[in-house]
Automatic annotation (TrEMBL):
Signal peptide: none annotated. Its cofactor is heme. CDD domains: CYP110-like. This is Cytochrome P450. Coiled coil: none annotated. It comes from the Bacteria. Pfam families: p450. InterPro entries: Cyt_P450, Cyt_P450_CS, Cyt_P450_E_grp-I, Cyt_P450_sf, Cytochrome_P450_monoxygenase. The keyword Metal-binding applies. Residues 1-27 are annotated as: Disordered. PANTHER family: CYTOCHROME P450, CYTOCHROME P450 12A4, MITOCHONDRIAL-RELATED. Keywords: Heme, Iron, Metal-binding, Monooxygenase, Oxidoreductase. Belongs to the cytochrome P450 family.
Length: 471
């Protein structure tokens, strides 16, 4: 592959990043609410809406935004009269709200029966803040720097095994890298766990279940669990398979003679005490560990897969990255720009939400206390006024422009912003660079991959299939 000229047109004076026209949003009084109309509603039966939303979220949200505007109500799986918004000012009002005014909806999402009620992801209020505070140091600055070599080793080890000259899916290969990374951070293991250990059992169970979750029939299992606190049906069986090695890992670590001096995340969680001197019990630890293992590897693996799915279909962007990396010509800038653009164009978590506990203004509309308000990351990331030519994959739009706090939101925001964002970005930088350095990749077919919706994530339906050749 030969390097081409810069894809940026130096005559192009259009600002790279735009701004949406202001739209007032935030908590209001009951009197103010009475003066505002409710957002328009999607005129379809509930079942049709739930099915369309869960199968074809992209067409659903884009289609109804075209007809109803940036803010509309839908009748979804979350109880209440949920609203979808696509406006950055509405996003800002929710991200900067007092925690008690707009608690997260994750505790009501399909993640709840899987990761339980006790994890940073699903807890709300004081408990959430306490657990979040406990985790943050393990995923910042110095801690991430310690992981860098390990990420690089895992990436090269994995790339060494890839087939050349015949199609394969990137997603499971990415998953192998990101699972090793998160497990070594949590359990303090070097590289892949040794066969026969409790950690190996957990790794095997996670890989098997992630694979099973895309099988036909998995969607039915997902639907059966909507709105439940405890898993049922196939999900229950899956969770039992996962729980066994998880509790084995916990039991083994509780007996470790060096528990007090270990620096891995699991030992730290075991030692942590509340103000009343209480420690986490096994169930609480299980919820937090599974959250970190599941949230911490699938998202990153699929984000990387989507970025390559886009790159191999946009030759200018692809060639520019390859040139930057191989010629060491501003490589960091192009890697960063490519990651920003990949996460903009294909946010792995396409929607997040809060349930407001006060009446709320959303532009020209008002909604009562108790309304679930969801922010469509997909719609925000494709606003024409913020991202001109939004359907093109153009990493160059990020040159000289930083992602906006309320316009680039693949990691959510406010007090619920993704705890693992820095780790995920570090992994993406290292893996993207290693692949661009070592491989020439091509799409196995020219047409873009559809999105498949699995639980709360949106993943490439064919796992980002490519053909690789050594560079
Ligand atoms: C590209 C990769 C990733 C993406 C796109 C992603 C995305 C997200 C999103 C959208 C949220 C919800 C934020 C909100 O509601 O405002 C979230 C929360 C969370 N993520 Fe990630 N994530 C990624 C990687 C990771 C990793 C590597 C970890 C490992 C620790 C992780 C752990 C968490 C946790 C614990 C939360 C809950 C935070 C809270 O509620 O306080 N994520 N993530």
């Amino acid at each position: 592959m030969t390097p081409t000229a810069l894809a940026v047109d130096p005559q192009d004076t259009m600002p790279l990043m735009g701004e949406a026209a202001p739209s007032p949003a935030g908590p209001i009084s009951e009197q103010e609410l009475a003066a505002l109309p409710a957002p328009p509603e999607i005129p379809l039966p509930r079942t049709a809406q739930v099915l369309r939303f869960s199968q074809r979220q992209i067409e659903f949200v884009f289609g109804w935004q075209r007809r109803l505007g940036d803010t509309f109500r839908f009748n979804g799986i979350v109880p209440g009269r949920p609203v979808i918004t696509a406006h950055p000012d509405h996003v800002k009002s929710l991200f900067t709200a007092k925690p008690e005014d707009a608690p997260s909806l994750t505790g009501e999402s399909p993640l709840r029966p899987i990761v339980g009620p006790n994890s940073t992801l699903t807890a709300i209020g004081e408990r959430h803040m306490r657990q979040r505070k406990l985790l943050l140091p393990s995923f910042h600055g110095e801690a991430i720097a310690r992981y860098m070599q390990m990420i690089e080793d895992a990436a090269h080890r994995e790339i060494d095994r890839w087939p050349t000259g015949k199609p394969f899916s990137l997603a499971p290969r990415m998953q192998a890298i990101t699972l090793d990374v998160i497990m070594s951070g949590i359990f303090g293991i070097d590289g892949t766990p040794k066969p026969g250990t409790a950690e190996w059992g957990l790794r095997t169970a996670v890989r098997g279940l992630v694979e099973a979750s895309t099988a036909p029939g998995a969607k039915i299992a997902e639907f059966m669990n909507v709105g439940r606190d405890e898993p049922v049906g196939l999900t229950r069986i899956g969770m039992e398979i996962l729980d066994r090695p998880t509790y084995a890992v916990i039991a083994k670590r509780r007996k470790a003679p060096d528990l007090d001096s270990r620096t891995d995340i699991m030992s730290m969680l075991m030692r942590a005490e509340t103000e009343d001197g209480e420690r986490m019990d096994d169930h609480e630890l299980r919820d937090e560990l599974l959250t970190l293992v599941l949230a911490g590897h699938e998202t990153t693996a699929n984000s990387l897969s989507w970025t390559w799915e886009r790159l191999v279909r946009f030759p200018d962007a692809h060639e520019r990255l390859i040139h930057a990396v191989r010629a060491d010509d501003d490589a960091d800038t192009w890697i960063e720009a490519t990651i920003n653009e990949g996460m903009r164009a294909r946010p792995v978590i396409p929607i997040i939400g809060r349930r407001v506990t006060k009446p709320w203004q959303l532009g020209e509309y008002g909604v009562p206390a108790g309304t679930p308000i969801t922010m469509s990351i997909l719609l925000v990331h494709h606003r024409e006024d913020v991202y001109p030519d939004p359907y093109s994959f153009r990493p160059e739009r990020w040159l000289g422009a930083k992602p906006g706090t309320y316009t680039w939101i693949p990691f959510g925001g406010g007090i619920r912003r993704c705890v693992g964002a820095s780790l995920a970005l570090a992994e993406m930088r290292v893996v993207l660079r290693a692949m661009a350095q070592r491989l020439d990749l091509e799409a196995d077919r020219p047409e873009p991959e559809h999105a498949q919706h699995r639980n709360v994530t949106m993943i490439p339906a064919r796992g980002a299939r490519v053909v690789a050749r050594a560079a």
